[in-house]
Amino acid sequence: MTHESQWRRVSRDEPCPVCSKFDWCLIAEDKSAAICPRTESPKRCGGAGFLHRLTDAPRAREPRRVVFPRRAVPPDLTALATRYREAAGVERLTAIAAQLGVSGASLTAFGVGWAENYPAWTFPMTNPETGTVTGIRLRPLSGRKFSVTGGKEALFLPDSMAPDEVLLVCEGETDALAAHTLGFGNAVGRPSCTGGTTALVALVCDLEPARVVIARDNDEPGTRGADALAMTLALYARDVRVIAPPDGVKDVREWVASGATRDDLEQHARATGPRRLNPHLRAKGTT
């Protein structure tokens, strides 16, 4: 076989099938054999090297390919939130306004929309420093909550806010909508009882509100989250207070549904003393 075969020199495009190099070695035209001077075999072909029948010879290892995952491009959630808002329509907004006990104007101010593909109501979360939507919370008709993939939590913000007024911080989007419906133009929602702290600090520094009122949920996680937020915001705001619904009332939206007015919430805030920082400073070396 080898005497009848025609031989050609290996190249970069066709390396040696025995040693994977691209010089010195020979390969038969019909690719049945190769002569490799680097890898020994029982059959030596003079100074050309060692004969390897390719059915018997050890195959050259395929070069190892390292595939790096392509970094996913973050979705344009601002544009997506706009499409959802436009898809909501008057009839759907009227329906959710009645379901949540909030005004249609507040739904519009918070950019509430409708995602037909889920289907679910959509609530955009906005970075107060950039004004861009960084996350979208989805609320299907079943009531279960989740978010659009690829987003990050931020704040539920109305489309306009005034400086030097009361900033009412609520837990969640529907509480913020209920407070906004009462007339708190600077009502905002944090994504959870512990989320949104960094964004709220940025918002407080930008608005410089006359007072920050944190309206917590009436449970232990809500209490802990509100207390922690109050201690943080007290570093940046003139007056920080925490209020809670009456016993037996879960949250702000339920409070409003039970008949609470803006004056009721403001009276609770006035009756609650502002949170003060009490740093315990000690001289070095003292106990």
Automatic annotation (TrEMBL):
It comes from the Bacteria. Residues 260-287 are annotated as: Disordered. Residues 277-287 have a biased composition (Basic residues). CDD domains: TOPRIM_primases (cd01029). InterPro entries: TOPRIM_DnaG/twinkle. Transmembrane segments: none annotated. It holds the Pfam family Toprim_2. This is Toprim domain-containing protein. It comes from Gemmata palustris.
